[in-house]
Amino acid sequence: MNYAREAKIERSAADALQATTVSWRRCLHAGCQGAQLGSDDKCLAHTDQRRSVLEVLHAEGRLDARGVHFTAQLLQEILTAARTKDGRPHFGAHAIFTQARFGDGAGFSGAVFDDRANFSGCWFGDGAGFSGAVFDDRANFSGCWFGDGAGFSGAIFGDRAGFSGAIFGDRADFSRASFGDRADFSGTSFRDYAVFREVRFGERTDFSKAVFGDRADFFKAAFGAYAGFIEAGFGNGTLFREATLGKGALFRKARFDDEASFREASFEESASFAEAAFGNDAVLFAVSFGDGTDFGGTVFGDRADFSGAVFGERTNFIRAKFGAESVFGPLLASGDLRLDSAQFASVTRIEIDACRISCTGLKLTAGAPVFRLRRAEVDFTSVDFGKPTVVSRLPSEAIPNKARESPNRAFRDGPARPKIISLRRANVESLVLVDIDLTPCRFAGVQNLDKIRLEGNSSLGVPPRGWQRRGLAWWRWTRRATLAEEHLWRAGVAHARSEGWGSDDSNIIPQAGLAKDSTYLEPRQIASLYRDLCAAHRHDEPLAASFYYGQMDMRRASASGAERMVLYWYWLLCGYGLRPLRALLALLAALVLSSGLIAAVGFPSSQRSSFPARLANSWWASLEAAIFRSAEVELAPIGEHILLSVRVTGPILIGFALLSMRRWIKR
Predict the structure, then answer these.
(1) Whole-model pTM?
(2) CA proximity to 127, closest of 108, 99, 100, 111
(3) How far apart are CA 2 and CA 404, in angstroms?
């Protein structure tokens, strides 16, 4: 047991021992704290009129036992006097035991309290027994002190049960007890082994600032709408396995020592563990959470396990900290799951099936060798992937069947491939993406992009499909991988949006809720992103070529003057050295044009033959000029000039064609 917690319980007991102030007229017997009864001004334990008092108890259920020190014989006498035809002791509205003291084995088992039962401030020795007792209305045990083995198993409490500030020794047993609308255990202290197995709590249960020793057992306990464990302290071996908690389960700032288990527990809605602290072995396996779950600022020790957990809408792990060997999934979330600024010291695996995941500022101290996602739109803004991290698709069969069938969320087989919508300002030095959709991903400010690896079926966006028309010109965009930044930049150009760039059906715009940013990069900055991606995928020629094309396109868009003109012709004639067919068509067009011009005006008038003959001769002359061979045809001066232009442009176009063909073959 935690020594600081044990010392706190001991101090609470010592403080209670000193609290001897009473509000009634004391018994005249020396040193007695009991309330006066009858004409002799003595308490129940010392009065000479005990017989008449017991007769009133039998007839009316009335008893004033405030401050009385009960012996075993005296307790037996009142239980016998209170017994009715059903064989059970019955106490009425005026049975008061405030600050009474009971020795070991004080037994009220099976007793019935028809109205209010007031035991506030009482002292019980070991083995106090209220098993099977029935409290029809209010039961007040506030400030009581119980020795070891206090038993309330099977007890039935009415509308209100108060145990605030009570102190229990070893093994306080409330198993299978039933509470009415309100149960107040705020500030209660349990030394060791508090048993609440299969207890049924009413609408409002309060364990705020309660202190539990080792082995707090809430196995299959059922809580109503509100269960408050705010700032409660738990020792080793806390068990909430298969417990059911209502709409307001609050564990804010609670402290758990080692081995806290919520295995297969169910939280209906608004569960909060904000700023709670767990020791080693926090087990949340197959836990079902409703909407509004909050683990913000929670600290987990080594081996936190969320395998098979199910979350509803609005799940928060902002600034949560996980120790070594943590297992975060496979888990499901029907809405947003936020891991902003969360920290994983050494995670075994992260596996999430969710709609949207925000990981802004996520810290993976030792990387994440298994980081698998399904369906989610993921925001990795400002994440440091300095250690090896593999982000991949989570197959549906990895989700446990019980999680799929959770009543809090219907399992959906929709598009399984996750989308990363932002890597802005992230360090992707050791990041590997496998089967990830990067169509809407923003890369502004990313670091070490030249070291990222895209593998498997990972994909980016593509230009608009089909033929486009601008004025009298018709064309179509080259098929290649495109970044979301290019789509958003082109969408700002007046004519581009009408051509399909940045439209809602292009999947560039992510769903509402994550990674919204109104800033756009300039073409020069986008070209730098393409250059880094090209460098990162030199081993993948087709992908590298696609990124190179995007780099050159953005460079051309940002250039001016002579550079822009050179890049324009480089694009037009051979697609930046990537389109061999375009270069060959340009060469063919140049040969056809030069042949026609030479046939028309390039021959001297003395050698004018038929036009077909001149065209054939001029074709061979142009072809030989293109490959640096001398033409054996006599031409007029203008024909020689035309042929000279072919000698210049022909080899250039042939070079473009060979360069493009070489890159095309390597792809």
Answers:
(1) 0.83
(2) 108
(3) 39
Per the document, the length of the chain is 667
CA–CA distance, 522 with 525 (Å, rounded to integer): 5
Amino acid code (one letter) for 137: D
DSSP state of 245: E
527 CB-contact burial (10 Å; exposed 0-12 / middle 13-18 / buried 19+):
buried
| Closest alpha carbon to 334 in 292, 304, 371, 395 | 292
Helix (H) or strand (E) holding 255: strand 255-256
Task: Tell me how far apart the alpha carbons of residues 144 and 146 are, in angstroms, rounded to a whole number.
Answer: 6
Alpha helices (H) along 224-338: none
Paired with 266 in beta bridges are: 244, 288
Could you give the angle at which helices 637-666 and 611-626 cross, rounded to 10 degrees?
Answer: 50
List the one residue out of 316, 536, 377, 378 whose CA is nearest residue 368.
378
How does DSSP classify residue 371?
E
Instruction: Kindly report whether the peptide bond that precedes residue 330 is cis, defined as omega within 30 degrees of 0.
Output: yes
Q: Which residues contact 235 (CB under 8 A, 6 or more apart)?
A: 1, 2, 5, 192, 212, 213, 214, 215, 216, 257
pLDDT, tens digit (0-9, with 9 covering 90-100), for 429-452: 999 999 999 998 999 999 999 999
Q: 529 to each of 72, 358, 424, 519, 547, how far by Cα in Å? A: 86, 23, 12, 16, 9
Greatest alpha-carbon span in the chain: 158
Task: For residue range 317-357, list pLDDT tens digits in order.
Answer: 999 999 988 899 899 998 899 999 999 988 778 999 988 99
Query: What torsion do the CA atoms of 461, 463, 466, 467 make, to the nearest 10 degrees?
Result: 180
**Tokens at 633, concatenated:** 């045809």
